[in-house]
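Entry under discussion copied across for reference:
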Amino acid sequence: MPTYARIPIAFERGEGAYLFTADGRRYLDFAAGIAVNALGHAHPHLVAALNAQAGKLWHVSNLYEIPESARLAERLAAHSFADRVFFCNSGAEAMEGVIKLARRYQHQAGNPERCRIITCEGAFHGRTMTTLSAARNPKHLDGFGPVAEGFDQVAFGNLNELRAAITPETGAVLVEPIQGEGGVRVASLDYLRGLRAVCDEFGLLLLFDEVQTGMGRSGKLFAYEWSGIAPDAMGLAKGLGGGFPVGAFLATEKAAAGMTAGLHGSTFGGNPLAMAVGNAVLDVLLEDGFLDRVDRLARRFRAGLEDLAARHPRVLDEVRGAGLLLGLHCVAPNSELVARLQDQGLLTVPAAENVVRLLPPLIAERSHIEAALAILERVCAEAAKVA
């Protein structure tokens, strides 16, 4: 179906931070499959894990024990706030699970009327009807009505508006620590702390969508860690499989208590192939010093982008984001800058609010950052001449 406005480029192979076309053209990949290829392309440890598992077992279903699934769940729980993990196949599926968990929690607590969830303007939680309804983007919902009920929306970052929106039917608050699709808008740490306090005050679950921000993208394993607080449940995907389709939602024992046998499921979720790769991704992310290096690299990249924007105010007027989820707010249409960068061999991703997203793989080296900055400098200098 013609649902994608595809760029007329086909890649034959990838290696580290680069993609190659069949005719040998090389591109520096700062799109990373929209933050999916966290460890770049053809990472040796991931390739070895997938090949080893592929020769043994692909799928058995969740009728049986899957040891690698249990192992990955235990490791994710050990390195997060969570006690329970459910594996699925995508970010949208993970967020559907988070929403179901929140409603079930309030039902089991004797408050079935508390089924509504407060979400934020500019959010993106997936392409299912429920997640689209949660985000309420008119462009994404056009022609797909009626929307799913149960969501109330407030301005991102406005605690006063959120408090005012709480009613006796409110059961949870759902927020992205950084709105990626929504324009690379970062929630302040004080805002996240305030959300935790409000949820505790009113008996609400705090739900985080870390589909794009999780798995090292922020410079910590999970973005919520920067705030010093934790949600009650969160959704993961994208970087969790390093390119292999896998999603998950994580929760505390208390929040997950209502999710008993038969209430939720996924045919492919937690399959042996996905779990082997997920464990391999975690092997790398948890190596001593890995995330510290990501944080240092991100700070260098941010400084370079700030300098770039300061010297080219007719092209760029703001640098947004955190970690290696960064955005450039453009003066001209962002599509123009994305195309110019692509022509120069740098792949990026557009976002809302006229922003260009920069999503380097977490294995990027300083040389890759400098190469990207050099391309950005050339393109901005050329664009400034005609601005």
Observations:
- The mean pLDDT is 97.
- Residues 149 and 348 are 35 Å apart (CA to CA).
- Residues 11-30+288-386 form a domain with the Aspartate Aminotransferase, domain 1 fold (CATH 3.90.1150.10).
- The radius of gyration is 21 Å.
